[in-house]
Design a protein that fits this description.
The complex is a heterotrimer of chains A (564), B (264) and C (325). Chain A has 564 residues and is α/β, with parallel strands linked by helices. Chain A contains 15 helices and 29 strands. Among the domains of chain A are: 236 residues, 3-Layer(bba) Sandwich (FAD/NAD(P)-binding domain), CATH 3.50.50; 32 residues, no CATH class. In chain A, a hairpin with a 2-residue loop joins strand 22 and strand 23. The two termini of chain A are 38 Å apart. The relative contact order of chain A is 0.17. Chain B has 264 residues and is α/β, with parallel strands linked by helices. Chain B has a single domain, classed as Rossmann fold, CATH 3.40.50.620. Chain B is built from seven helices and 15 strands. In chain B, helix 3 crosses helix 4. Chain C has two domains: 181 residues, HUPs (Rossmann fold), CATH 3.40.50.620; 119 residues, 3-Layer(aba) Sandwich (Rossmann fold). In chain C, 27% of the residues lie in helices and 29% in strands. Classes of the chains: A alpha/beta (564), B alpha/beta (264), C alpha/beta (325). Chains B and C meet through helix 3, helix 4, strand 9, strand 10 and strand 11 of B and helix 3, helix 4, strand 7, strand 10 and strand 13 of C.
């Protein structure tokens, strides 16, 4: 029996729910120069760059008023909801702060050695030599994106940005086809959405230009795409889920490692595309994570459990031996590549970073593109503001002609072939790598993750039972993210409650935070009534890919990532 | 009436708390936040001001801490305080509860408040008593674990939960009242208030400005040395019984409970 | 040679059991220090008889100071203890767990310029001085306090066990206390009001907690019966409160209450860390769960793998029999 997630769409009516067409009266609005939604690398790079430009331009500074740049961030702090590997190309930092000495950058360390392994089993690992081109990282740096965001936020605040943490952006303000800003989320609603004693409604944040830098398929990004049909003529976006841990280890790791193969399965019927990373960090720490595409078909596929299983590999255990887990987290990543990037602007608004699908899948790079896009967005907005215009189409060209456009174009078809299975896909993609994307050419299609039918495929049999030392269960993992949402918060997850058992199981396994649960008395076949423990949610976004919809919870809720 | 609210910046509840082995003190790096109990104190101050029973001219937020503590003050101001005072000085680092209370009392002296409110405990020190220390130095009556405050001219009627039930106590002003989290549901600041917080007046004070005797504060001025951090004793692994004959199992449970005098 | 002054709280003619524990502990420590443990009681009612004060001798107090001053408030006690310690030269003040202990202890430390430690779980003698240990960082580490001069030690709830030392009635000395201005400014209007609806979860010695394993809301009936038989209260996990099976005021855990009763009996609770952090300091943890892999068995003192629907009713009967018989 198989179930197709997209046949059970979430109860959401996007255009009406998440777009506000009448602004609050003037005295109730908050007027700012530029509103940036998302306090991650893209949003904060944009903020920093804008303030650099404004600092040199007294006339514009006056025009923009008291609050030239406001950054809206739903986490408790910038970086609280950021997670990545990560190995970053430092070029973007150089571009953002050309006069800064590199020693001031918030980097963990420089990449020296690198290895790629094809894991053949839990004991065997075949080193791939020479290191395949996409995995070559010389000259790049290991960073914690949470730390990077904190640092960028500090710099932006010093430069005069208003960083509004614990503030969600709930609706896009659209007037006469132009984006006029965003509306912040309410606070103090109860379980059923009813206002509680300390209810505080959100406010209209009215801006001359808005940047959506919400990360892996943001909430308002989705609304904007629907409102302005920004997806027209493009492939649908697809995602992978990454689950990560940070460990303090006894022996420092001397190289950046990537792996493919075990424990993922090779057959086309499983659609298990992904692999792992193990990166050294400063202070004897190690970042280790596993990524797998969300179009997987086995309902028992759980990236968190695959990561736990992966840690049992002889080589990996050697690295972690005697160590202690100090962090855990999960986040989805857009993998649609060039063809899935939406149109990046509409009147009054631009999309930057992961929100705009700017991730180079074969090279596992997205951070420096996010920063780069933030810089380009700032430049484009600056010019438009000087001309008193809301036409930001110049940004689209700037992105297309930049490294973002070129690199993503080169790798535009490199993920799709894996839909044919590991070996066939690998061969085809290799050909593309060698020919820099030219052969085979054309436009390979993406298939929506939620269109992939799910069925019970038995993957769970191999998952290890958590030992609390090297392997961990989901709940204790959520605990160390610092997630402590109040119990009477309203439910921010939209899913159909009454779904076929296979689909329910798929969500139960998929979710790294244990949000979905089957009631004890659920029937083995047929429809079940899903339990949604939404207070566990770490806002990774996987559910949006696989048939539901994540909307922003009350500002301040969710994890407090620090070193992920 | 002038109300001073004592606030403290503490590591966020989410941050794993550890000892910084190089200083022997709590590692205070990492994300920080306004002590949750203090938000209840600010809310109590605002409710008194908005209640109208007695006119309140201003609510002042006061904190002692390093530079980063200004954020706790910004939060306090976004919740309604009119201005804030930041006591910050190298000499104060390492102060224990008694020294901290003394320093805060000296700072409050300059303000001559009619009422001092604070949260009854802080997330990091896990002490429950700084109000009593402050009150002693100011010569004011003090009460802690207060869950209800009614204000009249010149005095308060407080309810607090003590060992034997709820006590109702009449307190003459000026007084120091430490509040529990059951006292109210703190409001959320509006975006406007958050953005306006940085503009409200903030006075920075060094120890000397507050007339603090440096020999009474800091690690050297503290009368107790805390250190020698060890791990708590490992719990003995428990016993497990597989229930087959329930009558027998229950007998074993009762015997186990009796052994530990839990059935008296 | 150091003497210890122990504060003893009383109410309606009865001595507080945490205070009695402190007296026992004080007597033990004074013995090692080569000094004496004295107790002090403060009150203004008829119930503070000489006999009541003298009875502290059976817990090891060599002498009991009795001061007439308002009851149930901290600052008059600070005045009384400060006077006694100054006049008689006690080096340490010791308090059993409880609210007044905190308030008095902190005020006293400020008055005397002494060092103070709260939430103390253990006190030892080292080189003729007292060293107090307390847990910090959510019970993950123990910190030791050493005092430069005088020390005020405030125990955690139930940290010190009351032990009769076999001593006879102690000598009672009445003390005249001059109240400081602040001590006259707070007046007790009503003390110890009981409010029926609020079951005191945090103060209960015994908690019977129910989780998802109960199966349905009615399952809490089993918990209530056992709790009544044991003289305790009923608590709940977040999951069942979420499902509406029991009120939020009884929720234990990361987003609920933190408790440390003498006995925590968990029925049908898996023991996920979000729950564990709310009850891990309980003195005795008993768990009943049908899943032998439930994490709670890793930290329970006594774990029973079985059907709570069978075990709870039989246990309740057996407890009633033991207590009644």
């Amino acid at each position: 029996m198989a179930a197709v997630p997209s046949q059970f769409p979430p109860p959401v009516d996007s255009p009406d729910e998440f777009v506000k067409r009448e602004l609050d009266p003037e005295d109730e609005r908050i007027e700012v120069g530029v509103a940036i939604v998302g306090g991650g690398p893209a949003g904060l790079a944009c903020a920093n760059r804008l303030l650099q430009l404004i600092a040199e331009d007294g006339a514009l500074a006056e025009q923009l008023g008291e609050v030239p740049v406001a950054v809206v961030e739903k986490g408790k702090a910038c970086g609280a909801h950021n997670l990545s590997g990560a190995v970053m190309n430092p070029s973007a930092l150089r571009e953002l702060f050309p006069d800064m000495d590199e020693s001031e950058w918030p980097t963990q360390l420089e990449v020296e050695k690198e290895s790629v392994y094809w894991m053949l089993s839990s004991k065997l690992a075949l080193p791939l030599w020479p290191v395949p081109p996409p995995f070559r990282n010389h000259g790049n740096v290991v960073v914690s994106v949470a730390e990077l965001s904190r640092w960028l936020a500090e710099k932006a605040e010093e430069a005069g940005a208003y960083i509004l943490t614990e503030t969600s952006a709930q609706q896009l303000l659209v007037e006469d086809g132009v984006v006029r800003g965003v509306r912040s989320g309410d606070k103090g609603r109860g379980k059923e959405g009813e206002p509680l004693g300390n209810f505080e409604p959100g406010s209209d944040l009215v801006a001359r230009a808005t940047v959506l830098a919400e990360g892996t398929w943001g909430h308002l990004t989705g609304a904007a795409i629907r409102e302005f049909d920004l997806g027209a003529g493009r492939e649908p976006q697809v995602w992978a889920l990454g689950v990560k841990e940070v460990w303090e280890v006894e022996k420092p790791l001397d190289r950046v490692i990537h792996t493919l193969g075990w424990p993922l399965r090779y057959g086309a019927k499983w659609q298990e595309f992904g692999g792992s990373w193990i990166y050294p960090m400063a202070d004897n720490r190690v970042s280790i994570g596993f990524v797998a595409g969300l179009d997987h078909t086995d309902a028992e596929m759980s990236v968190h459990d695959v990561l736990q299983q992966f840690k049992g590999h002889k080589r990996v255990r050697r690295i972690l031996e005697g160590g202690k887990r100090v962090a855990w987290g999960a986040k989805a990543i857009p993998e649609g590549g060039y063809w899935a990037m939406p149109k990046l602007s509409a009147p009054g608004v631009v999309l930057a970073g992961d929100s705009g699908g700017m991730v180079n899948v074969p090279r596992l790079k997205g951070l420096h593109y996010a920063i780069h896009a933030g810089i380009l967005a700032a430049d484009a907005i600056y010019r438009a503001l000087k001309n008193g215009s809301t036409d930001l189409r110049a940004y689209e060209e700037m992105v297309e002609e930049s490294a973002i456009g070129t690199d993503l174009y080169e790798t535009r078809n490199m993920k799709q072939p894996f839909g044919r299975g590991f070996f066939v896909g690998g061969a085809i993609t290799n050909a593309m790598v060698v020919t820099k994307g030219r052969f085979p050419g054309g436009r390979w299609k993406n298939h929506r993750d939620a269109d992939a039918p799910v069925f019970r495929g038995g993957k769970a049999r191999k998952y290890p039972k958590p030992d609390g030392r090297y392997t961990f269960d989901k709940l204790s993992s959520v605990f160390i993210t610092g997630n402590a949402t109040r119990d009477d918060a309203p439910n921010h997850i939209r899913v159909q409650k009454d779904v076929p058992r296979e689909l329910a199981e798929a969500w139960v396994w998929m979710c790294p935070a244990g949000v979905y649960e089957l009631p004890e008395d659920a029937p083995q076949e047929g429809s079940v009534d899903l339990i949604v423990n939404y207070t566990n949610c770490v806002q990774c976004g996987a559910i949006t890919a696989k048939g539901g919809r994540l909307t922003p919870p009350e500002g301040g809720d969710g994890p407090l990532y620090q070193i992920t | 009436m002038k109300i001073c609210v004592l606030v403290k910046e503490v590591p966020d509840a989410a941050v794993e708390k550890r000892i910084d082995t190089s200083t022997g003190r709590m590692d205070r790096s990492g994300e920080k936040n306004l002590n949750p109990f203090d938000t209840h104190a600010i809310e109590a101050a605002m409710q008194i001001k908005e209640g109208g029973a007695v006119p309140v001219e201003e609510v002042v937020a006061v904190t002692m801490g390093p530079e980063s503590a200004v954020r706790a003050l910004h939060k306090a101001v976004s919740l309604g305080a009119d201005r804030s005072v930041h006591l910050s000085d190298e000499a104060l680092a390492g102060s224990d509860v008694a020294a901290t209370g003394y320093a805060l009392a000296k700072t409050l002296e300059r303000e001559s408040p009619d009422l001092v409110l604070l949260g009854q405990q802080s997330d990091d020190g896990e002490c429950y008593t700084i109000g009593a220390v402050v009150a002693e130095h100011l010569g004011m009556p003090s009460l802690t674990q207060v869950i209800q405050i009614d204000v009249e001219e010149g005095k308060l009627r407080c309810e607090r939960q003590a060992e034997y039930g709820y006590d109702t106590v009449a307190v003459e002003l000026p007084a120091v009242i430490s509040v529990g989290d059951a006292i109210n549901e703190p409001r959320y600041p509006s975006l406007k208030a958050i953005m306006g917080a940085k503009k409200k007046p903030l006075d920075g004070l060094a120890a000397a400005d507050a007339g603090i005797d440096a020999s009474k504060v800091g690690a050297d001025g503290s009368m107790v040395d805390c250190g020698d951090f060890t791990d708590p004793p490992q719990k003995e692994p428990g016993q497990i019984i597989e229930d087959e004959d329930t009558a027998e199992t229950v007998e074993k449970i009762v015997a186990w409970l009796e052994e530990r005098k839990l059935l008296s | 040679m150091s003497d210890i002054l122990v504060y003893v709280l009383h109410y309606q003619g009865e001595l507080n059991k945490n205070s009695l524990g402190a007296v026992s502990e004080g007597a033990r420590l004074a013995g090692e220090l080569g000094g004496e443990a004295h107790a002090i009681v403060v009150g203004d009612g008829d119930d503070l008889t000489e006999d009541l004060a003298a009875s502290l001798g059976s817990y090891g107090a060599a002498k009991v100071f009795r001061a007439r001053a308002p009851e149930g408030l901290a600052q008059p006690v600070v005045d009384a203890m400060a006077k006694v310690m100054t006049d008689n030269g006690h080096t340490y003040a010791l308090f059993g767990g409880g609210l007044l202990g905190f308030e008095v202890g902190a005020g006293l430390a400020a008055r005397l310029g002494a060092g103070v430690t709260m939430e103390v779980t253990e006190v030892d003698v080292q080189d003729g001085k007292l060293v107090a240990s307390r847990p910090i960082l959510q019970d993950s580490k123990i910190s030791k306090s050493r005092y430069k001069e005088r020390g005020v030690i405030i125990g955690r709830l139930n940290a010190f066990e009351a032990k009769e030392s076999g001593g006879g009635a102690a000598a009672v000395e009445d003390v005249e206390v001059e109240l400081s201005p602040q001590a006259t400014k707070a007046t007790m209007v009503e003390r110890g009001e009981q409010r029926g609806e609020d079951v005191d979860i945090e103060g209960a010695d015994v908690l019977v907690a129910g989780g998802r394993g109960l199966g349905k809301a009615e399952g809490f009936g089993l918990c209530e019966e056992l709790a009544t038989a044991m003289g305790g209260a009923v608590a709940a996990t977040r999951a069942v409160v979420d499902a509406g099976w029991y009120p939020y005021s009884t929720q234990i855990g990361q987003t609920g209450k933190t408790v440390a009763p003498k006995l925590y009996l968990a029925a049908g609770i898996s023991g996920a860390i979000q729950h564990k952090v709310g009850m891990q300091s309980s003195e005795n943890i008993v768990a009943i769960n049908k899943d032998s892999n439930a994490p709670i068995f890793e930290f329970s003192d006594l774990g029973i793998v079985g059907d709570l629907n069978k075990i709870l009713p039989k246990l309740t009967e057996a407890v009633k029999a033991k207590k009644g018989g």
